[in-house]
Task: inverse folding
């Protein structure tokens, strides 16, 4: 006897709607299992993207009961009673059913300047654990793009997309900014790519399946670095004076 | 033969028709509980603090009651109108209205620009967004990239001022052990003032600007071992910043209320030993 109702979005850029599928629940199932069963029985043309079924490839992102979730990591028995709605990610253009076009993210990825270390000293690079461990948290990212999807800056404001890298790339900025060997100064860029648009409401952190503390450990530290570079009047004055000193030293050198 | 280089670039779509229904949210859980609680608590605090700041009385329990308790809203009491005993010396003579209004601007500025409170009020008062995956209530959005919200970046200066206030309120808490005419002792009021000072320190030390200034801003920790230690120390506190923000807010309000009730004679400050 059917005891679960899956309310799945069916559609493409031309439009669509929710369709209900009634199924018998099975022990230990996740949402993705049920979607696969629907494909196998009622709707062989139901499109969904998946790969690892282990929460590691970041392909199966969708909105389950209105919240971005990995379908393969969302257990059916932990969802509340009643129909389970499964919709595609809202922030990205739809291709079909649960599949969206996430190219936006790859375009933004291109705008983050690559790792740029100084030439290696004799004997090669050396780094200490304490200098690289902060960035290791950010490398857990599986690029599910749910943080990008939930971020209201683009989710609710399409017009911001061209100028907003989004939380996934703010952690990339932070990772490189905290890397002991990197020589780029990404603070100006982080500002240009919308760091100031983020209002630290922390939804990205709430949805991240890798539990990366995106806001606390990447965005806020980057905002503070931008303050150092741009808005801190005392630091600004300090730099002015230091630069003046340097200039005087150079002038002195010029004069011999 | 087509190579990767010679293949025509696929046009990239940044935007386009979205999937899913055109609804503000599909969430069915009670996402509105948190904004409602935030609005209620913050509004209550602001209303109470405004009233307390303007009331300009009952903020100090002095020698006539064998106590030395001052409300955190009125400390340091720097104006001529401060009740005798509540202040070390009169510093400001031209200020004639409530002395609280002179100083509250700093703690309020500190909390207003705090990263945690920003999250709280952007969500609950401004609805940008009210909860995750619930549409924000504005047609246009520029976040903190423009005036006036760009001013939030001054937070670290309020942090510095906050430290000065913490020192003053800690001195107040120590002075609360004095019981003029009776010697030293501990009363409920002493404990309340100590708790208040302790929570304010935890709130300040867990601040994100503090974490950055302590050492978070460094690229390489190994070159700055002392700052690394500071950073290591404040990082776990920082993870609890939200809890400290709420606890210290509520306790600072209750501390004022306690002093007020004792000063007005409504309750007696119970002496423990
Ligand atoms: S904290 Fe910032 S980046 Fe993260 S979801 Fe909120 S606005 Fe977007
Ligand atoms: S940061 Fe987290 S939510 Fe964002 S893409 Fe990476 S794993 Fe997904
Ligand atoms: S299928 Fe790989 S993360 Fe879900
Ligand atoms: S006091 Fe909250 S972040 Fe500084």
Result:
């Amino acid at each position: 006897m059917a005891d679960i109702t899956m309310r799945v979005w069916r559609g493409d850029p031309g439009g669509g709607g929710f369709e209900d599928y009634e199924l018998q629940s099975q022990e230990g199932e996740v949402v993705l299992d049920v979607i696969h069963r629907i494909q196998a029985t009622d709707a062989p043309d139901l499109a969904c993207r998946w790969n690892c079924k282990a929460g590691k490839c970041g392909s199966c992102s969708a909105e389950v009961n209105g919240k971005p979730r990995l379908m393969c990591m969302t257990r059916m028995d932990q969802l509340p009673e009643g129909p389970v709605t499964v919709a595609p990610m809202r922030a990205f253009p739809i291709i079909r059913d649960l599949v969206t076009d996430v190219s936006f993210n790859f375009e933004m990825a291109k705008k983050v300047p690559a790792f740029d270390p100084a030439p290696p000293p004799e004997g090669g690079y050396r780094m200490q654990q304490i200098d690289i461990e902060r960035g290791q948290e950010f490398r857990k990212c599986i690029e599910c793009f749910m943080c990008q999807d939930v971020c209201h800056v683009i989710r609710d404001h399409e017009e911001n997309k061209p100028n907003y890298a989004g939380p996934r790339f703010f952690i990339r900025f932070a990772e490189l900014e905290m890397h002991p060997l990197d020589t780029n100064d990404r603070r100006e860029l982080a500002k240009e790519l919308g760091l100031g648009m983020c209002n630290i409401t922390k939804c990205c952190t709430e949805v991240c399946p890798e539990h990366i503390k995106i806001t606390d450990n990447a965005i806020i530290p980057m905002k503070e670095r931008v303050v150092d570079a741009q808005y801190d009047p005392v630091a600004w004055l300090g730099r002015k004076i230091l630069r003046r000193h340097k200039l005087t030293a150079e002038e002195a050198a010029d004069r011999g | 033969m087509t190579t990767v280089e010679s293949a025509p670039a696929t046009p990239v779509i940044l935007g386009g028709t979205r999937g899913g229904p055109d609804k503000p949210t599909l969430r069915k859980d009670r996402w509105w509980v948190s904004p409602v609680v935030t609005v209620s608590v913050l509004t209550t605090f602001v209303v109470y603090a405004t009233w307390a700041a303007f009331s300009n009385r009952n903020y100090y329990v002095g020698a006539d009651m064998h106590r030395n308790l001052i409300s955190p809203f009125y400390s340091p009491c720097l104006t001529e109108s401060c009740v005798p005993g509540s202040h070390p010396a009169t510093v400001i003579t031209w200020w004639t209205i409530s002395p609280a209004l002179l100083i509250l601007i700093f703690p309020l500025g500190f909390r207003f620009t705090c990263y945690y409170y920003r999250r709280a009020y952007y969500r609950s008062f401004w609805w940008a967004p009210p909860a995750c995956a619930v549409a924000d209530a504005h047609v246009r959005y520029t976040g903190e990239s423009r005036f006036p919200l760009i001013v939030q970046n001054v937070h670290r200066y309020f942090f510095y001022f906050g430290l000065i206030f913490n020192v003053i309120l800690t001195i107040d808490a120590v002075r609360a052990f004095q019981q003029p005419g009776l010697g030293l002792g501990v009363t409920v009021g002493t404990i309340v003032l100590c708790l208040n000072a302790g929570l304010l320190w935890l709130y300040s030390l867990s601040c994100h600007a503090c974490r950055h200034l302590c050492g978070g801003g460094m690229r390489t920790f190994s070159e700055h071992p002392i700052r690394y230690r500071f950073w290591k120390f404040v990082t776990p506190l920082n993870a609890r910043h939200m809890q400290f923000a709420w606890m210290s807010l509520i306790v600072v309000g209750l501390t004022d209320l306690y002093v007020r009730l004792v000063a007005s004679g409504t309750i007696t400050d119970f002496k423990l030993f």
Summary: Residues 233-254 of chain A form the longest helix (22 residues). The domain at 103-234 of chain A is CATH 1.10.1060.10 (Fumarate Reductase Iron-sulfur Protein; Chain B, domain 2). Chain A touches chain B through 73 residues (CB under 8 Å). Confidence is low (pLDDT under 50) at residues 247-253 of chain A.
